[in-house]
Amino acid sequence: TNRSLGEGIKACLWEENKNWVEELPHVLWAHRTMVKSSHGDTPFSLTYGTEAVIPAEIGMPTYRTTAVDVVNNDEELRLNLDLLEERRELAAINEARSKSKMTKYYNSRVRGVAFQSGDFVYRSNDASLAAAGGKLGPKREGPYE
Predict the structure, then answer these.
(1) pLDDT tens-digit map of 88-113
(2) In the record, which residues are listed under signal peptide (predicted)?
(3) Which domain range does residue 102 map to?
(4) C-alpha pair distances (Å), 132 with each of 56, 57, 70, 78, 135
């Protein structure tokens, strides 16, 4: 989530990186209304039980906004809220299936590494808490025998 939000903010910013706070609500809206591949639904619909109306649809009549039956709208919203728990359970099942699939793919590509006495190795700076060099600093230190 944090990575996709960071990428969304970077995409909205141009040469000046000062106004990222102004872009944050737009990026969050896009993040909450985008269908997630892991469970096949939007976070907004899993929270509120209905699809979001995007700001462009509010000012301009579309089929979705004109087809709403105002009389039966409250009843349909209650029905959606009743079915919301089923949608959440289905999303949890789909997310578990997706996680299992990703785990299987990852584990199929992992190689075992065996070290012998006397081998030279590099140690991660995260593990040794070496002086922070930022994103451009060295990621490993060594070699050590």
Answers:
(1) 999 999 999 999 999 999 999 998 88
(2) none
(3) 35-111
(4) 45, 48, 59, 53, 9
